[in-house]
Amino acid sequence: GCHTIETREDALVEKFFARFRNHLTLFVLGPSTVARLGIFSFLIYVPSIKKCLHHNFICVLLNDLFGIQVRSGCSCAGPYVLDLLNINDETAGIYAKFITANEKDGLGEIPKIELMKPGFTRFNLSYFASGKEVDYILNAVEFIATDGWKFLSLYTYNPETAVWRARSKSSQNNLSQYHSLRMISYTTGTMEENLEQQQNSDTPPLITNISSDDPIEDARLIANKIPKYVYENICSLKDTPLNIPDKYKDFIWFAIPKDVIPKIVIDFAQIGSTTVPFRPNRDN
């Protein structure tokens, strides 16, 4: 009954916090020492870039790599969220300008950039999920917290809608590509999902070229292949610019592809590089 459900919820909460309470890059929002349900909101920080991964990017990546659906960006209790994110009223007012069309600050027009809206990713561990399912979800979340930044190079974004998509997707009719019901067929008399069609249209080639029985291991293999793939195939010069006015650039809180691609390319180019086999003697 209810007691069994509550006991299971408590165990899931403890399992989550035992793993992530002091995690270096995953920041859990809200208190960890009070009674709560197995619903968790978090941010992922990238130390080398000193910015966070955008919550919508995390949402898409968990889906594309692991088939895990989570929520991102939506919050009903706005003032509480501002408190959790440590955003004061003045800063909140500045972010509000970016999500309000045709808003002016008195010095010039502020473009509508939905991508600038602060937010977080949220998921739950259900009391009826098996131990194997719970471990899979937590392993996937931890992988994104550790290696998710590398996958930024495989994606691009729409500043106005805050939608992230794989670079291999058509730039036309973006939103329609996220309607998963179009993959459903009843031609055999039963409901079936065309996974091959979905993979071919919705995921980068680097992802579809790897297949095993363990999605976590697949993700690790993909991450290892990203440097070579980016070095040979990816250029972020044509990515849509954020067009943030100079006076507001310090308010950019999330990483974008161009933040990571140069590092990936430079690091890969240096692999196997050789040094000069001798050093001249300056004293002679």
The chain-level structural class is alpha+beta
Task: Quickly count the helices.
Answer: 9
**How would you name the CATH homologous superfamily?**
Aspartate Aminotransferase, domain 1
In CATH terms, what is the fold-level topology?
Answer: Aspartate Aminotransferase, domain 1
Number of strands: 9
Question: What string gives the helices and strands in order?
Answer: HEEEHEHHEHEEEEHHHH
Mean pLDDT: 84
Q: What is the CATH level 1 assignment?
A: Alpha Beta
- Overall 3D form: globular
Major β-sheet annotation:
5 strands, antiparallel
Structure description:
Keywords: Membrane, Transmembrane, Transmembrane helix. This is Aminotransferase class V domain-containing protein. The protein is of the alpha+beta class. β6 (155-158) and β7 form a beta hairpin. The protein is globular. The strands form three sheets. Strands 1, 2, 3, 4 and 5 form a five-stranded antiparallel β-sheet that branches. The chain has a two-stranded antiparallel ribbon with strand order 6-7. The longest helix has 19 residues, at 2-20. α2 crosses α5. The chain has helices spanning 2-20, 55-66, 78-84, 89-98, 131-147, 195-202, 205-208, 215-233, 257-269; strands at residues 26-28, 39-46, 51-52, 71-72, 121-124, 155-158, 163-166, 184-185, 192-193. 23% of the residues are buried. It contains nine helices and nine strands. The chain is 38% helix and 11% strand. The protein has a single domain, classed as Aspartate Aminotransferase, domain 1 (Alpha-Beta Complex).
